[in-house]
Amino acid sequence: MQHQHQHQQIEPGGRQAQRYARIAGALYLVIIVIGLLGETLIRNSLVVPGNAAETAQRILASEALWRLGVAGQLVLLLCAVGLSLAWYVLLRPVNRNLTLLAMFFALVSLAVESVSALQLQGALAPLLAAAQMGIDPRQAQAAAYLAIVGHSQAFALALMFFGAECIIVGYLVRKSGYFPAPVGLLMQLAGLCYLLNTFIMVLSPALHAVVFPAILVPSFVGESAFCLCLLFKGVNIPAWDQLHVKGAAQ
Q: Which residue in 77, 84, 149 sits closest to 112, CA to CA?
């Protein structure tokens, strides 16, 4: 009778975890879509590598699109904060300390990525102010281009911390018993690729130009797999409840 009463108390926890999983999946999907659109349809179409003048002309000709890309980054960051909380709730039962460590990496990653988003906004300032303040257009173009380069480098640094987070999250997913272990392995591979991408960019820009963006394909696969798992499969509720029963018994 006592065991039955305990099970009734735990059962809502499983259903609540399922709701967190669905919310996490939806937030993750928004993050992935915004990230892809911002990189492929906006920045890649407006930024001309090595050509500050052409980049400046394209940005000024499509100022609204550039601003939309910056706004998208801000929405992405808001969603990422919510996703971090959902991951904490979903993975804390496996190992509280490791989950906290993953969240510390997440917070640092999001802080650095916020700075990188500001650099995208900052790229507009010298271009718009050039005519009004009598700044040499070439200097304004160079300043804008350097801000964009700074964004890329800051974003790569953010991915380093996110990569460490993914490795820990993947380990927790593998050990959870209520998420598919292969998804956890894919997340760990995603994190490793993020780490390699950042360090290759710092240590050998020439090599990075060769391996990028192919090196991030496993990251996209791993994150997409976890996103779809959260969105459509969610938590294995019996396994979740069993873990909590075991924890309560101890």
A: 77
173, 190 Cβ separation under 8 angstroms: no
**What does each C-alpha distance from 5 to 185, 212, 238, 249 come to in angstroms?**
36, 55, 16, 13
- For residue 221, what are the contacts with CB-CB under 8 A and spacing of at least 6? 186, 190
Write down the pLDDT at residue 133. 75
- Return the pLDDT at 213: 87
User: Which of these, 72, 90, 77, lies nearest to 19 by C-alpha position?
Assistant: 90
Tell me, what's the pLDDT at 12? 35
Cβ-count burial 21-56 (b if 16+ within 10 Å, e if not): bbbbbbbbbbbeebbeebeeebbeebbeeeebeebb
> Cβ atoms within 10 A of the Cβ of 103, count?
19
Task: Give me the average pLDDT of each 10-residue run along the chain (250 residues).
Answer: 40 76 96 91 88 92 92 96 95 95 97 93 87 80 92 94 97 95 97 96 92 92 96 90 60
Of how many residues is the chain composed? 250
Cα pseudo-dihedral 72, 77, 82, 83, rounded to 10: 90
Residue 245: its pLDDT value, please? 58
> How much is the pLDDT for 90?
95
Residue 250, Cβ density class (10 Å: 0-12 exposed, 13-18 middle, ≥19 buried): exposed
- HSE toward the beta carbon, residue 142, CA cutoff 13 A: 5
Interhelix angle 52-61/124-133, rounded to 10 degrees, is 90
